[in-house]
Amino acid sequence: MIEILFYILATITLGSAALTLLSKNPIHSALWLVVSFFSIAGHYILLNSQFLGMVHIMVYSGAIMILMLFTIMLMNLNISHEVSKPFITKIVATVAFCLLGILLLSITMRGTQVYELQYANTGEDFQSVQVLGKILFDKYVLPFEMVAVLLLLAMIGAVLISKKDKTEKAA
After folding, report:
1. Residues 13/40, Cβ–Cβ less than 8 Å
2. What is the CA radius of gyration of the chain?
3. In angstroms, rounded to a whole number, what is the distance separating the alpha carbons of residues 67 and 34?
4. How far apart, in whole angstroms, are the C-alpha atoms of residue 112 and residue 108?
5. Rounded CA separation 44/50 (Å)
6. Is there a contact between 71 and 29 (Cβ–Cβ < 8 Å)?
7. What is the dihedral angle through the alpha carbons of 123, 1, 51, 115, rounded to the nearest 10 degrees?
8. How far apart, in whole angstroms, are the C-alpha atoms of residue 156 and residue 171?
9. pLDDT for 53 beyond 60
């Protein structure tokens, strides 16, 4: 049963990720990304990491995607004003992407080794919110604060980019 759920979630994840890239409308692309995030959270839950799955839904599917949607809406991206790329540019980009993919696959396949993981049971429950909070705010407090500042700066930057000039309004 879990294997069937895994394959269903994997299909949804890959399909929605592909539709994220192939959608011409940026709003539709962002919504497909939300579907992809939800299915990735489903993978976390299948791995018996419910806390991480719920945090993934709240942080990525909630906060980050809402920020992205607001940014897209504030920037007022209209497809009618977009300049079409020449056909040769699209062909060159596709060939470059395929060559890079082949290169990465060949590097990955050449150096593959099978590792058997050995787990040591320490008796601590790392699924516990108390243990996660202790580790996050004791050992990783500086990176946690830096990420908060980075997200704040990204939000301020998005607002500044979307801000209209006063000269445009007068014209």
Report:
1. yes
2. 21
3. 12
4. 6
5. 7
6. no
7. 50
8. 26
9. yes
